[in-house]
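input
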Amino acid sequence: MRWVLRKVLMPALRRGNFFTYAFNFGRVPEPDWLHNMRADGTIQTASLEVAGSEFTKIRTRVLWDGTEVRLSGLESEFGPAAL
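output
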């Protein structure tokens, strides 16, 4: 799952090349398609490891509006307690 999510988001995450960052040619502007992107959906996964801690039964609503992505209603379990 990790590589699939990275592959889907890579055009939004990677907006320059080595020379842009190495020689500080300025920030690369967001692509036009990203400004027009609108999505509303749900992401859920069985488990996610963050900094050595495992979260299970993760579910969140994703609201994508242009260059802004919001997660709301995040639900998860961590150890024996539900968050």
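quick obs: The radius of gyration is 16 Å.
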